[in-house]
UniProtKB/TrEMBL annotation:
Reaction catalyzed: 5,6-dimethylbenzimidazole + nicotinate beta-D-ribonucleotide = alpha-ribazole 5'-phosphate + nicotinate + H(+)
PANTHER family reported for this sequence: NICOTINATE-NUCLEOTIDE--DIMETHYLBENZIMIDAZOLE PHOSPHORIBOSYLTRANSFERASE
Function of the molecule: Catalyzes the synthesis of alpha-ribazole-5'-phosphate from nicotinate mononucleotide (NAMN) and 5,6-dimethylbenzimidazole (DMB).
InterPro entries, A to Z: Nict_dMeBzImd_PRibTrfase (IPR003200), Nict_dMeBzImd_PRibTrfase_bact (IPR017846), Nict_dMeBzImd_PRibTrfase_N (IPR023195), Nict_dMeBzImd_PRibTrfase_sf (IPR036087)
Source species, domain of life: Bacteria
Keywords: Cobalamin biosynthesis, Glycosyltransferase, Transferase
The protein's name: Nicotinate-nucleotide--dimethylbenzimidazole phosphoribosyltransferase
Stated family: Belongs to the CobT family.
């Protein structure tokens, strides 16, 4: 599968840098905001960049075979889909603060439902995924189908006006899958990447390290190809999130990555479409070690570090005002040359 990923506009980046240096402030004094302003100018190909008015969060919901490694029961995944639909989740509340919309897509929730809107089920791939310590997460062909589902979700959001995309996740047990994907992508041992997720104790952490080690051993020799990696060690949600990220890049729409799940998916997505990472920013630093490894490998520095470990897109949403502020300095500040 080959993608043509556009290259952000270097001339707009340089023009933004020049303007930033001429703004009414000491050169460089707005620090990271200046870097973000130039990044957004390159993404939009203009100075100042366009306002970010239509921000969309898409929550990829699905169960993971290793859900027993979580501090919470598997049934929470489906129950949370209802919370997203009712507008009461963490990300719903935080998105409301910045005027972002939240959509939830059932990619692989393990439930039987009759009362969930058809639009939520429209991109469903399967129910749950395999327990990666003992079996593949996905059947042959499913990783590609899930990837294409994520791609369609990005297309739907972009075609209806989204100018900034945020991938969210909901899936009990998914931090073990993140650890496995990141370890396999970067050749790291399980013990270095496994984190406490929703809050397992030290015995739970040891079980998680053991399961991720077993998964890595089981999949050894098959992880070079990113779709094989998703099949062996990922999940339908991981593949769908990767597709979402690649399609945003292919259509030159900026993305704010969230926590550990979007970080792990991004690492695999970059292997599918090298260069796509130029369209992604890291919204925040998660407490999960695998996210730190993933972001470092992608060359991304988190905008915020608030100690969040929720997922759902909640951390990325927090970075939206910072990105808007970065644009505003370019759009609205006066010039040093006009000082009287
Ligand atoms: C009520 C609740 C809401 C959540 N929202 C996101 N997560 C987060 O926690 C899960 C990953 O952590 P682990 O691998 O330890 O299960 C994912 O569902 C993730 O989205 C939640 C978890 C819970 C319990
Ligand atoms: O930081 C995250 O993204 C995270 C951490 C723990 C559980 N779920 C998500």
């Amino acid at each position: 599968m080959r993608f043509t990923i556009p290259v952000p506009d270097a001339a707009a980046h340089a023009a933004a840098r020049e303007r930033l240096d001429g703004l009414v402030k000491p050169v460089g004094s707005l620090g990271r905001l200046e870097e973000l302003a130039a990044w957004l100018s390159a993404a939009h190909g203009c100075v100042p960049p366009r306002p970010l008015t239509d921000v969309r969060v898409v929550v990829f919901a699905g169960d993971h075979g290793v859900s027993a490694l979580s501090a919470y029961p598997r049934e929470v995944t489906g129950a949370m889909v209802r919370v997203f639909l009712a507008g009461h989740s963490g990300v719903n509340v935080l998105a409301e603060q910045v005027g972002a919309r939240v959509r939830v897509a059932d990619i692989a929730v393990d439930w039987d439902v009759s009362d969930v809107p058809a639009s939520v089920l429209a991109h469903k791939i399967r129910r749950g995924s395999g327990s990666i310590d003992v079996e593949d997460a996905l059947l042959p062909g499913e990783a590609l189908r899930a990837f294409e589902a994520g791609l369609s979700l990005a297309d739907e959001e972009i075609s209806t006006g989204a100018d900034l995309l945020i991938p969210g996740d909901m899936g009990i047990g998914n931090t073990a899958v993140c650890a496995a994907l990141v370890a396999a992508s970067l050749g790291l041992p399980a013990a270095e990447v496994v984190g406490a997720g929703t809050g397992v104790d030290s015995a739970g952490l040891a079980r998680k390290v053991e399961a991720v080690s077993a998964a890595l051993a089981r999949a050894a020799g098959r992880v070079e190809d990113p779709f094989e990696r998703l099949t062996a060690l990922g999940s339908a949600c991981a593949a769908a999130t990767a597709g979402f990220l690649v399609q945003a890049a292919a259509r030159a729409v900026p993305v704010l990555l969230d926590g550990v799940f979007s970080g792990a998916a991004a690492l695999v997505a970059r292997d599918i479409a090298p260069g796509a990472e130029r369209w992604w920013l890291a919204g925040h630093r998660s407490t999960e070690p695998s996210q730190a490894f993933a972001l470092k490998a992608l060359g991304l520095e988190p905008i915020l570090d608030l100690g969040l470990r929720l997922g759902e897109g909640s951390g990325a949403v927090q970075a939206v005002p910072t990105l808007r502020a970065a644009r505003a300095i370019l759009a609205d500040m006066g010039l040093l040359a006009d000082l009287t």
